[in-house]
Structure formats: structure tokens, C-alpha cells
Specification:
Elements: E1 3-10, E2 16-23, E3 33-34, E4 41-46, E5 52-60, E6 64-68, E7 82-89, E8 92-104, E9 107-111, H1 113-118, H2 121-143
Antiparallel strand pairs: 1-2, 3-5, 4-5, 4-7, 5-6, 6-9, 7-8, 8-9
Amino acid sequence: METTQVKPKTIKGGNTKSEAVFQGKDRRDGFRARVVHGLNLESELRCSKNKVWPSKALNLSQQGVLLEFPKGSVPSVIVDDKVSVKLCCHEDIVWVPGVVRHQRGNRVGIYFPEFMHRSTHSTAQIISRILRAVERGWLRQKAQ
């Protein structure tokens, strides 16, 4: 059983935002490929006011990505914020529209609704190639 708690969090200016904390069952269906050390995968998050935040992708699936940000450089996002994620692996570069699903510390989970339902063919191809590269790296590391 999955439980959800919403914790108020004070942000700059004394305002509060809600930070959802999920406990229990993993919510993303399907396989998540863990991004292994040495794979040349770059990621960035674009949120409000077009500010871009460099990040590290920890895992990737066709439904979303888990991003990790450097301590002290975490974007101020809340659940259901619309964002864009840049994924760059070798010659493949794509910006994917996403929605914030959770934030825990310096990690943010992003869901890709546009990709799942009505993405362009070229976007789907690029995401698939990047995901295959991540999966190959994960499988190579697991086999060692």
C-alpha cells in the first residue's frame, strides 16, 4: 500500500510550498534503466522563467526520469509543475516536456506525459535511442 504525506516547506520570502513525500510502492510502471558511471548522458531541467538547472540523470524509462542536482543548486519546484528535460547522449539531443511528480532532497522525479501520449515521431526515436544506450550501459555493468 502506498501512502502520501504532504509537508509544508518554507521557501525564500517566507512563503510555503507543499512537498509530497511518497512511501511504499514504486509508482512508475515498467523498467527503469539506471544510468551507470561513464555513460555520456547529460541532463538539464528547465522550469519557470526558462531558468536551466544542470543535473545528473539517475535512471530513465519511457515514462520519466529521476534527476539529481548538486547540493545548494536544487530548483524550487513542486508537484505538478510543468518543466522540460534536456537529454543529451552522444549525438542525440532532445528536450522533453515533463511534469514534476516528486522531490526528495536534491532529487526530482519527472513524468513525460507528452512522450507517452502524443509525442512527435522524431522525439520518440531520440528518446528510444537514448534509453537503449542507457540500458546497454546498465546491462554491461551488471554482467561484470
